[in-house]
Write a structure and sequence with these properties.
The chain is of the alpha/beta class and about 250 residues long. Helix content is about 40%, strand content about 15%.
């Protein structure tokens, strides 16, 4: 099965910087045997929709309101994201959980709202360093997944990618061992099996994210049970991101 490679630009790049990035990216673009998803700032979505027309690259947003359009100044709805070219949205990134105090209940509402508006979801889960140091990694993952996916129908899991991102590995240059990732992914799939079915557990797509670079990309992408990777800062340079993609396919 083709590996998934997701770029998360976070709060980086103006629209014209995204344009330069995509020009460079597309000049080296091949028909990869990978599923590529670019998670861009809102202000770059429409431009990317235009520039990536006909290319096998999906566009993702990085956040969504939990509600549909109404008096919610500064928020962005699923319908707006879909209309601007997004087919995915990241929900539950640790930066939103910590900086914007998004809890599992809000994350659950955002997921439901995204699905309702036809978006696929990249659900980020992961333990903090304190969780890890107190052997609570698997318990944390279980709560995050169960609460985020509460009330969903099994067939909706087709439109969800779970990104396992240990909080302490994001932007730190530190990574877990492949064995630790394998264990975490097994436990993620076990939660899905218990709450949905063995088939859902087998079919749900799970990626790893946290300090991926061209040197370690292949190692993480090929861990048993892992369907791909999510790349933050190393995706901001198109040449480096290309090296990462090439390492995975
Ligand atoms: C992320 O922001 O989701 C991420 C994985 O970042 P980085 O690759 O920079 O650790």
């Amino acid at each position: 099965m083709a590996k998934i490679v997701i770029a998360n630009f976070k709060m980086n790049k103006t629209e014209s910087e995204t344009k330069d990035y995509l020009i460079s990216f597309l000049s080296k673009f091949e028909d990869y045997k990978a599923e590529l998803i670019l998670a861009l700032p809102y202000t770059s979505l429409s431009l990317a929709k235009f520039m990536l027309e006909g290319r096998a690259v999906a566009i993702s947003a990085q956040n969504i309101s939990e509600d549909d359009e109404k008096g919610a100044t500064g928020e962005i709805s699923g319908r707006m994201l879909a209309g601007s070219g997004a087919s995915y949205v990241i929900v539950g990134h640790s930066e939103r959980r910590t900086k914007f105090k998004e809890n599992n209940k809000v994350i659950n509402q955002k997921i439901k709202n995204g699905l309702k508006n036809g978006l696929s979801i990249i659900l980020c889960v992961g333990e903090s360093l304190a969780d890890r140091n107190t052997m609570k990694t698997l318990a944390t993952l279980k709560v995050q997944i169960e609460e985020a996916l509460k009330g969903l129908y099994e067939n909706e899991l087709e439109n969800i990618i779970i990104a396992y991102e240990p909080v302490w590995a994001i932007g730190s240059g530190k990574t877990p061992s492949p064995k630790d990732v394998e264990l975490a992914v097994k436990s993620i799939r076990k939660v899905i099996e218990e709450d949905f079915s063995p088939k859902a557990s087998e079919q749900i797509r799970v990626v790893y994210g946290g300090s991926i670079n061209p040197k370690n990309a292949q190692k993480f992408a090929s861990i048993s049970g892992i369907n791909g990777i999510l790349v933050g800062s190393a995706s901001l340079d198109p040449n480096i991101f290309m090296q990462i993609i090439n390492a995975c396919v």
